[in-house]
Amino acid sequence: MKRTAIIFEKFISYRMLLLFGVLFIFSFTACKKEQLNISSGISFSTDTLSFDTLFSTLGSTTRFFTIKNTHKQAIKISNIQLAGGITSPYRINVDGDAGTSFNDIEIPAKDSIYVFVEVTINPTAANLPFIVEDSVLFQTNGILQQVQLNAYGQNAHFFNGDSIENNTVWNDDLPYVILNYLQIKSGASLSIQAGCDVYFGSNAALLVEGDLNVNGTDTSNMVTFRGVRLDKDIADRSYDDFPGQYAGVFFLRNSNGNIEYLNMRNSLYGINVGNIKTSDDPDENLAALQAMSISNAPTLTIKNSKIYNHAFYGLFGFLGKIYAENTLIYNCGKNVVGLFDGGDYQFLNCTFYNRSSAYISHAKEPLLYMNDYFKIGDNTYVIADAATAIFENCIVSGTLEEEIIKDDITQNPLSISMSFDHCVVKTKESLNAPTFLNCKNENPVFKDIFKNDFHLKSTSPCVGFSTSNFPIIDIDGFARANTPTDCGAYIFQ
After folding, report:
1. Class of domain 43-153
2. Which of 34, 161, 417, 425 has the fewest CB atoms within 10 Å, measured from its CB?
3. Could you write out the three-class secondary structure of 417-443?
């Protein structure tokens, strides 16, 4: 019994010794962790955080910088402060906490934390872009440091769910920003003069019931339609490269458009010609669809324009009327040109091209698609009363084996009339009349498709290949002095 007690006492002693050892280790570690660098400052991933031009009243994307502790000891930042305080146009978040002032922020040795920054610009009287500045101040071991914040602001004309009910002219004084939608009422017109920049907010649309006139004069004085974001995202990618930033432009039944020298990019649906005016009543929508005919089709003339980088369509016809010349349309997620439920279309010296990119997949849908029906039920269709598409001196090319699809429905006695005359095309079909007249199924040999340069090389089969009917200048304004000229929107230089 005594021996058992001795063994038990020794066991307890060992347990106590082990416990004291563990406590000593934790105590030593804790003491070591509490040792702070008390003489040095901190480092930053940048000394200036800049935002690209932002429209007044609209917030920015979130940008960030990191605070780095490059030392072998932990360091404590006594204070982090947004210099402008609560009146600053900037907002900061330090390591997950939002505010304007933060105290005793500790960073472990060889570690870092994030500071996230956003900004909203207040309007001013300035027409030109202006700079808005602030800074984030850091007090560490008596050392004062800062990161400068710079943003460039721009005033604009703003429209948010508005209507144009009279004849209106937009001049090139300030940018125009459409949020939600802008509607041109029946009987009214909007004329957009050369040099105007029109920016669309997320899902915003321009709805045309009356007339839209885009009056660019040359490639140096085009009208621009694009998304509202001028800055970059958190991964430093330009928003100007992202498709699908806004809905697009929609010409409703009986509307009219006359577009020259338009640069339009980065929408969902591009330019739509033929939509109905929808309502909350499904029966009214069905009646509007069934009432569509070529007689109430909207009419669009588009010349010398560039339409590209759209999520679904570049140019969309829905039993509409379109005349296009010297126009370049490329890199769209579904169809570069999609012509649905027939219509009446003519294309002269246009360049159409499609390939996949970092943001768009061109894997299944052809560049050019046309049908003569619209399905509204299991066995119910809206049948086109006209279905004609003429392509003359055009380039229709892309990375698929078949870039041209004609989809006739047997219920339509008309059938589609689609013809290509002196065009360079990408198709698996035999180039026989009446669809193909003097066409070539060859690589058009552009200068650099990866840089979206669709000018022609000297070896292009498009050079000296056209009918005698062509525009007197190309999209760049160069005279088409020779007969025949070159097919496509550009002549070889």
Report:
1. mainly beta
2. 34
3. EEEEECCEECCCCCCCCCCEECCECCC
